[in-house]
Amino acid sequence: MLSDAIQQYVEHHRALGYKYRTQSGLLRNFAVYAEAQGDEVVRTQRALDWARQAPSPQQRRNRLLTLRRFAQAMQAEDARYQVPPSDAFGRVAFTRRISIPPRRLSHCCRQRHA
C-alpha cells in the first residue's frame, strides 16, 4: 500500500534527524489522493494531476519535487514506481537573497576600492 510505504519513508527520514513535517504532510495528502483512485504506487500522471491542484506555482513545484524524491527512493526497490519529471512545470531560476546590513556593506565597499 502506498500509505504504508510513505509512512516507512517518513519514519526513516525522522530517524536520520530530519523533522520532515511539511514533506510528510504532502506525501500523506498524495497517498489519500492516489489511493482513492486505486493506485498502489506513484504514477506520473497522477502525480502531475495532484501537484497541479496546489494554489501557487511554488507550491506545485514543491509538491512535485517532494513526491519525486519519494518515488526515486521507492523505485530502487520496486520498478512499478514512476518518477515524475522535475521540470514538468517548467524550470525555475533560483536567485539567492543576500542580506548584508548597510554598515557592513559600506565597509566592504571601502576595502575593495582602497
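^ that was protein a. below is b, sequence first then the C-alpha cells
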Amino acid sequence: MVIIVPNYFTFWEGHYKIFWSPLFNWRPLGRAYIRLMGRDPDFLDTLNLVTPKKIL
C-alpha cells in the first residue's frame, strides 16, 4: 500500500500559489497571512489537514 500525503513543512502553498511558512498551519495566523497577501482566506477552512493520527 502506498499513501501519498502533502508535506506541511514546505514553503509553498499550492492552492493559493504563495510563499507559505509551516508556522501558518495554525489557522488564525494562516488566515491573517492570506488576507495580507490579498487572497480570500475562506478556502483555508475547507482544507482537511492530515496528521499521522488521522491516517491511522
